[in-house]
Recover the amino acids of this structure.
């Protein structure tokens, strides 16, 4: 485990550091001991020369070679002496002795010790020179032996100290840390368990570490308790929001940015007829297309909400199939994807829909009433003006023709006076039905602009077109047919019509209607039950 490796690492580190320090110290001790041994050897040789100096001085003064030879032979018996000689004052060799026939040169690095030989009677008189060359092999061997003993002693001492430090560190630091780790692993968070601080470590770093660990356990326990409380609050809020979501009078749905349905509440399923959330992914991807009558409007709302980061609203028609048309007021909010939450669901499209079918029907009915005659169902004066203006704009843009026919019933007042207003209304309703039968429902205009006055506008027609002629004749003959009233009586009305064509007879709706009206009155003056084209 990691703690074991840490303890082994401590041992290795101590051994390496101790080894490096001991090696450095041993090297320095070795060099120092070696140099001291050489110095001591030199001092020993000097002492030997001092011991025989008196005898050698007498031999040199007496020029006694035998005595001098005995002196140098005696010196050469010392293991440290490699070469001994006595030289005359002029520098020539006098007597020589070698230890084991050692060859010594002046420049081979050997240690040389020499003393001047003086007259026994006159210290100022120099009679010769005695020299000893150290036996370097013996001297170095002895020096190495002494230095090695000292170096090994220091190395062993350093390693012993390292081991002692390791044992102490293990007992004081490593073992308590291992025990602390074991205690920590055994503690269950949030249960109130705490670590025990040993009496021996009450006031040291390990005691501070254990106290800090206990403080962390306390903080963790408090944090866990706060987390439990927050989770309980979140669970409660979630339940409340889920209840609101499920029972809301508004339909709520959530979609991905790829327009795939993720979730919707029961109200949304009821309004859209979508079913439950178990619908497959492929079907969920068609939610918009199968729910809204004009999916492009919804897509446009989403695009604007995504672009501006706000909420878009609009009234949308739902696909109702064979049932009645349903309308909803839709609010759409596009939530941008979070930078740290990539994926298709990191951003969402949230929608809220309210059933406005009754309001929309009322609005549509009001709008219809504002531009339609309540009796005949044809366009009224206002509806005629609006639609005719649109038709003229289209004719200008497409450079096409447009003809306006002003119709006025002949004999209607007599029927109204003879049979009453109810009968008159029946006549007007039937006339309107016959007018609608003659015009093209998708493109032409039919309107009631007065008591018994009507306007018909034909798109893509001019004064010479067959469509204009056929329509005028169809209106003239169709409306002149007898009309059976509700009381069983049969009545008949005539028809006078004036025609004005764009752009020859005017470029404005008012001008076309006026010129058609003038042509219609000309027909009435000429005998009625006919149609005529405007003059200009």
């Amino acid at each position: 485990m990691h703690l074991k490796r840490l303890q082994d690492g401590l041992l290795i580190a101590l051994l390496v550091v101790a080894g490096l320090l001991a090696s450095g110290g041993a090297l320095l001790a070795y060099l120092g001991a070696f140099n001291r041994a050489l110095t001591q050897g030199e001092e020993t040789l000097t002492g030997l020369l001092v011991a025989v100096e008196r005898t050698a001085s007498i031999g040199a003064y007496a020029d006694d070679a035998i005595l001098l030879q005995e002196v140098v032979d005696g010196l050469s018996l010392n293991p440290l002496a490699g070469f001994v000689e006595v030289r005359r004052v002029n520098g020539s060799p006098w007597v020589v002795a070698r230890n084991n026939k050692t060859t010594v040169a002046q420049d081979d690095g050997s240690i040389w010790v020499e003393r001047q030989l003086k007259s026994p009677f006159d210290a100022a008189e120099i009679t010769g020179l005695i020299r000893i060359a150290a036996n370097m092999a013996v001297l170095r061997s002895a020096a190495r032996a002494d230095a090695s003993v000292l170096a090994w002693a220091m190395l062993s001492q350093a390693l012993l100290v390292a081991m002692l430090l390791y044992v102490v560190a293990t007992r004081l630091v490593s073992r308590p840390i291992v025990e602390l780790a074991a205690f920590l692993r055994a503690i269950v968070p949030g249960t109130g368990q705490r670590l025990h601080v040993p009496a021996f470590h009450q006031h040291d770093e390990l005691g501070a570490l254990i106290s800090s660990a206990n403080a962390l356990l306390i903080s963790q326990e408090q944090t866990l308790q706060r987390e439990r409380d927050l989770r309980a609050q979140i669970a409660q809020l979630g339940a409340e929001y889920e209840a609101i979501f499920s029972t809301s009078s508004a339909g709520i749905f959530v979609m991905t940015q790829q327009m795939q349905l993720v979730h919707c509440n029961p109200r949304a399923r009821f309004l859209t007829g979508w079913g439950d959330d178990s619908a497959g992914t492929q079907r969920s991807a068609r939610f918009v297309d199968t729910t809204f009558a004009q999916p492009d409007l919804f897509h446009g709302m989403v695009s604007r909400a995504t672009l501006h980061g706000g909420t878009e609203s609009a009234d949308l028609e739902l696909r109702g199939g064979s049932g009645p048309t349903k309308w909803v007021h839709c609010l759409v909010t596009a939530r941008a994807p979070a930078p740290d939450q990539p994926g298709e669901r990191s951003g969402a499209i949230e929608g809220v829909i309210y059933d406005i079918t009754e309001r929309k029907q009322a609005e549509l009915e009001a709008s219809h009433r504002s531009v339609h005659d309540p009796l005949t169902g044809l366009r009224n004066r206002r509806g005629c003006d609006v639609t005719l203006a649109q038709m003229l704009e289209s004719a200008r843009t497409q450079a096409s023709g447009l003809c306006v026919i002003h119709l006025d019933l002949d004999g209607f007042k007599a029927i109204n006076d003879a049979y009453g207003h109810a009968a008159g209304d029946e006549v007007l309703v039937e006339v309107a039905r016959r007018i609608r039968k003659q015009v093209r429902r998708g493109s032409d205009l039919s309107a009631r602009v007065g008591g018994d006055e009507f306007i018909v506008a034909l798109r893509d027609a001019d004064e010479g077109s067959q469509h204009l002629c056929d329509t005028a004749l169809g209106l003239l003959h169709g409306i002149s047919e007898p009309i059976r009233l509700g009381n069983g009586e049969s009545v008949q009305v005539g028809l006078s019509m004036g025609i004005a064509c764009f752009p020859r007879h005017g470029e404005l709706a008012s001008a076309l209607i006026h010129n058609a009206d003038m042509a219609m009155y000309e027909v009435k003056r000429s005998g009625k039950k006919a149609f005529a084209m405007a003059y200009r």
About this structure: The longest strand covers residues 326-335.
